[in-house]
């Protein structure tokens, strides 16, 4: 029997997060403004005909688990591999002295600052509305967002830890790890199972996540594709 994590984006887009998605029976995407991710009912044989009319030219979309020939009308921009990791550790300790602020998806400044930080640090596909997909926590220097971590895909009980990034001027202080611990604690207390993605070439992050308590679930292809203009 297939596991939810084997096709997590589809199960998220067609299930608990269908309210954030658009598409048809066999293919869906996060709606405009959210992370540009595609999900297919059959990830190994994606039905691009069903999603083409929902995807605007000039936008790079991410899809996982597929390495077949490109369909007509689409082009391949990048192909890499990533680890899908699932939590296998203990409850992170409570960090009573750490007081990040929850980012408000209805606050334009929060959304714009999150988007700007993601564009600067490239933690993965991100959109100006992405922080509405779950809880996002941020660290601030005065009014400037300098680090964040949050939640993206969700197919109960699996919830993704995502958007983890720190401004280059503030790296090396452990902010991202502390933010992740708070997100993971929230998920575990809610009886959810944390998981995340990390590119196979990002050895430092992969090793950090292993030490934190994640384990590799699988290694999968990830492609960046777009409609031909």
Automatic annotation (TrEMBL):
Record-annotated N-acetyltransferase domain positions: 101-229
UniProt superkingdom: Bacteria
SUPFAM superfamilies from the UniProt entry: Acyl-CoA N-acyltransferases (Nat)
PROSITE patterns: GNAT (PS51186)
UniProt keyword terms in alphabetical order: Acyltransferase, Transferase
Entry annotated with the keyword Transferase: yes
Name used for this protein in its record: GNAT family N-acetyltransferase
